[in-house]
Amino acid sequence: MSGVDGGERTAQAGGPLDDPQVANAQVTHVTQRPLGVLAALPQELGDLIEAMRAESGVRTVIHGRRDYHVGTVHGVPCVVTLARVGKVAAAATVSALIHAFDVEAVVFTGVAGGVGEQVRVGDIVVANALLQHDLDASPLFPRFEVPLLGMSRFAADAALAAQLAQACERFIADEGAASAARFGTREARVHRGLIISGDQFVASAAGVRALRDALPDALAVEMEGAAIAQVCHEYGVPCAVVRTISDTADDHAPASFVSFLTEIAGTYSNAILTRFLKARGER
């Protein structure tokens, strides 16, 4: 996968990094309270790991069958990794970031399907809140509510989400028209609101209608964000999620998703994360 090889590897899965106390001792001497940056697929990270390699070098730690890339990007200490696809994979990855790397905050980037009628391919959605649309323990608990937590919606960190939204707006102001012309999309708009997650790739008009009926304020659907938000909530770690709309989650979604992921996703991620990290590094 892109950007994985070429760094110094410091531990193997099943080795000492599987002990969080040992992990902290080995990692935190390099970076104090880094930012955790995740995506599900390598294309969604763009050139972030290459930028890290050029700026500070990359130390790659293998933990729980994942590669965690430790270094600095635009002056910000970061741990960058792939969460892989789905809620369990995402929850496991962010838990490791919190326990083994003591991250101060978590940012998840990637693509999503558009659900809100005003959301179009090429738009960007920054989450205000996240919810698992496939969680239903009724009649014991209300639909969508996480049992024993008494919550269905997990708020993104307001300051972190605002910083991401500002980075998105700067990207559109700087490159929006050129990117739209290059990729044949309309000029992007930034939306703030509810992102929903589930362990399924929504790819039918009927599926979108069902989501709209159940959750009228949902803007985008994906497969990881709400799980990350729940874990971060339980451990008191700020998190934010930004998604570029690759498809409209309907019958054309599979082809649209693959094309967007291959041709466009990395460009958007690079542009947004670069602006976000530069602003954060200047604080």
Automatic annotation (TrEMBL):
CDD domains per record:
MTAN
The reply to whether S-adenosyl-L-methionine figures as a keyword in the UniProt entry is no
Q: What class of enzyme is it?
A: hydrolase
> What range(s) does the Nucleoside phosphorylase domain occupy?
35-278
One GO biological process this protein is involved in is: L-methionine salvage from S-adenosylmethionine
Return one GO MF term. Answer: methylthioadenosine nucleosidase activity
E.C. designation(s): 3.2.2.9
Cellular component aspect of the GO annotation: cytosol
Q: Which residues does the annotated region (Disordered) include?
A: 1-21
Pathway(s)? Amino-acid biosynthesis; L-methionine biosynthesis via salvage pathway; S-methyl-5-thio-alpha-D-ribose 1-phosphate from S-methyl-5'-thioadenosine (hydrolase route): step 1/2
Q: Which domain of life is it from?
A: Bacteria
- Which Pfam families did the record assign? PNP_UDP_1 (PF01048)
Q: Which UniProt keywords apply?
A: Amino-acid biosynthesis, Glycosidase, Hydrolase, Methionine biosynthesis
Fetch the PANTHER family from UniProt.
5'-METHYLTHIOADENOSINE/S-ADENOSYLHOMOCYSTEINE NUCLEOSIDASE, 5'-METHYLTHIOADENOSINE_S-ADENOSYLHOMOCYSTEINE NUCLEOSIDASE
- Protein name as catalogued: adenosylhomocysteine nucleosidase
Q: What is the lineage of its organism?
A: Bacteria, Pseudomonadati, Pseudomonadota, Betaproteobacteria, Burkholderiales
